[in-house]
Amino acid sequence: MAKLNVNIQKKLKEFDLNVDFELKKGCLGILGPSGCGKSITLKSVAGIVDPDKGIVSLTTDNETVYFDSERKINLKPQKRNVGYLFQNYALFPNMTVEENVAAGLSKDDDKKIVSDMIKRFHLDGLEKRYPRQLSGGQQQRVALARILAYSPDVILLDEPFSAMDTFLKEQLRIQLSNILNEFDGLSILVTHDRDEVFQFCDELIILDKGRIIAKGETHNIFENPKKVQVARLTGCKNISKIEIIDDYHVKALDWGVTFEVSQKISPNITHIGIRAHDFSPASENDLNSFDTSNSTKIEKPFEWEISLANGLWWKRDKQIHQHEFEIPKYLKVNPKNIILLEDN
Amino acid sequence: MMDWSPIFISMKTASLSIFITFFVGLFVAWGIVKMKNDAIKIVLDGIFTLPIVLPPTVVGFFLLYIFGVRGPIGQFFIDFFSVKIAFSWSATVIAAVVMSFPLMYRSARSAFEQVDSNLLDAGRTLGMSEWKIFRKILFANALPGIIGGGILAYARGLGEFGATAMLAGNIAGQTRTLPMAVYSEVAAGNMGSAFDYVIFIVVIAFFAIFIMDYVTIRKEKQWK
Fold first, then answer.
1. Is the ipTM of this complex over 0.85?
2. I need a labelling partner for B143 at 20 to 30 A (CA). Which of A3, A54, A176, B10 fits?
3. Three-state DSSP class for residue A94
4. First CA to last CA across chain B, in angstroms?
5. For residue B166, which of B49, B71, B80 has the smallest C-alpha distance?
6. What predicted TM-score, i.e. pTM, was given to this entire model?
7. Cβ(A147)–Cβ(A140) under 8 Å?
8. Which of B116, B127, B223 sits opposite A150 (nearest CB)?
């Protein structure tokens, strides 16, 4: 049973990085805004960046210590057997596809592995091309082929889709997800895109200014973000400061609306969150309903975005050919869809 | 009848000095690029760059101080090998190496620095040794810049005058290089033979620049 153990500290310019996690199977997501320390965490695992303090170790059949500040161990990246997919893929521009895939192999065994990889990643016919002559999708396949040819224990993915247009991104996500499913080692995906972690990762860490602010199963974190920052990063569009009225009622100060909630409110709750899709049409006397006068609607191809006068956002799915939409006079939200949040 | 010896001396000097400058400059540049301590880096960079900033005669003065018969290295060679460096052919090589070194070093360094550091890290995570990374990634991708630096350094070595005059003198048939010969002919009023040497230098210089551009353009086209 493989296990990756990471517990590192590093002083950075803006903040101190302090992360601690363990990965036993599948893909771990690290989600956070840009500059939160997620790439540095990934590079510390690969050995490209040295943490100040801490431990990084991988246990497969036996334990390999990659880094241990107390025992003064710092294994070179060459000895860690970790595959790193760089944001821009870092293909060697002076080498052909074939040579790139063979770059991590010794002379004796490379022929067979390279031709297997070329086939597996559908690169037949492109063997003699240079990276600049390839499309974005082909480049990513070459980069992955190069990593898997090296048969790593851990694959590290550093914002693999950040510099792509939407169409290509959707295709490559499917491609990468198939590859990761076939790979039986551990992997870590670093991104600022919540859709990506939701799709790829069973386990999730959310980083903010070098600190872990949420850790656990991806679905749990998305359903119950617990903290304001986490709610925001998992895509909750409506977040407001509150005043607690009683155990089950709060006043949302930013929107001027009073809501009933389904869970008892503990005193450390300072905010509530409501996802933009969780509203539905209502009549005046319904529970948790409010007035929608003076709203603005924005038409998107597949949804209406309604910006209410009180500051709330409502999103409603639509068909492409529908262009008319009457905003109901009142909207409501189910008490169990109101997320109770702590301010960090 | 034209004296061909300055041409042979210059070709010999320039060829040997570029051989030394090329490799030393390349590896010193690699060392500086890899260096993590910024303070030492700046000091060393200053020392390695100094020869192109200082007047050549000042560099020659320092060289004479070190390699002259009373200088530490000059005396050592006399005592142990009975070889006098100053005012011998080897002095022209030393002067050319020292004067052309900064061009090679700086060109190689900036060519190295332009190689995306992710490429080097990618090589490391793929288990490539540092030496293999240097050859296959850093050197290969910096090649156009390195060749450019090499050719500039070659041309600089070929045209070296001030430091050579100080350390090697102007001994006909021994240390009289092409630029020295031009100077001597003009000083003696022989404009005609000076002109022959000048033509020769201009042709070589033009040819060097031609090779440099040709190689750079061809390499870049291949990858694109």
1. no
2. B10
3. coil
4. 52
5. B71
6. 0.82
7. no
8. B127
